[in-house]
Design a protein that fits this description.
Number of domains: 1
Order of helices and strands: HEEEEEEEEEEEEEE
Helix content: under 10%
Radius of gyration: 18 Å
Number of helices: 1
Largest sheet: 7 strands, mixed
Shape: globular
């Protein structure tokens, strides 16, 4: 595996030695070369409104700031969140924004990784909600320094940028100051294998309990 590349990516992303902050606002994630042809998914619910989570696995998502950036090449929001393990069990959180770091040299070599999807949900009042694409982090025990172990009570901060282009609507919402918003978290375990010459990806949603807050977009 490309552990050296992953280490460089970690430094570029601004992950400090104590794991206090990951800043990827200026990082363009590198995707894998070979996308799976087929995929399947399974797993329980995630989030405060989902089914009962696995016992002891709970994450607090605290939004520290959320601000529109009009100086970016395309309209975007910059957000910073603190993720805290508020459960009773330790949690390994993925920290590498580059999925390319987990793809083996040979297509016949199977691989697996954990992913964390952080995405912003804007409350548009009577117009419903707008779900922004957010950011993804990946991790694996086979790729050095891509998993951060969070014991009970420990936390990590993430600063990232998301495009103002909702995935659940065709038009871009008008984002003004004081617009309520929250950040959601989705964890998945994925594995990629080759079957009859074609790549297949199987993903399983990791059930966790999410405790999150809501703040207004800053001007």
């Amino acid at each position: 595996m490309r552990s050296v590349i992953a280490l460089v990516a970690r430094i570029v992303a601004g992950l400090q030695a104590d794991g206090s902050l990951i800043d990827i606002t200026g990082v363009v994630p590198r995707n894998r070369v070979r996308e799976p042809v087929t995929s399947s998914a399974s797993g329980g619910g995630v989030g405060s409104n989902g089914p009962v989570a696995q016992q002891g696995v709970s994450v607090g998502v605290t939004i520290l700031s959320l601000k529109r950036d009009d100086n970016a090449p395309e309209p975007s929001l910059v957000f910073e969140v603190r993720l805290t393990n508020v459960g009773r069990e330790s949690l390994e959180f993925p920290t590498d924004p580059n999925l390319a770091d987990f793809e083996p040299e040979s297509a016949s070599t199977p691989y697996a990784y954990v992913s964390a999807h952080l995405y912003v949900v804007l409350d548009l009042n009577q117009r419903g909600t707008a779900v922004l694409p957010g950011v993804l982090f990946y991790g694996s025990k086979q790729v050095t320094d891509t998993l951060k172990l969070l014991g009970p009570g420990q936390s990590i901060q993430i600063r990232a940028r998301t495009r103002l282009k909702p995935v659940n609507a065709n038009s871009m919402p008008k984002v003004t100051a004081n617009l309520p918003a929250k950040v959601e978290l989705l964890l998945q375990q994925s594995s990629v294998t080759q079957n009859n010459g074609a790549l297949h990806e199987e993903s399983r949603q990791i059930s966790i309990q999410i405790v999150s807050n809501s703040i207004n977009v800053s001007p």
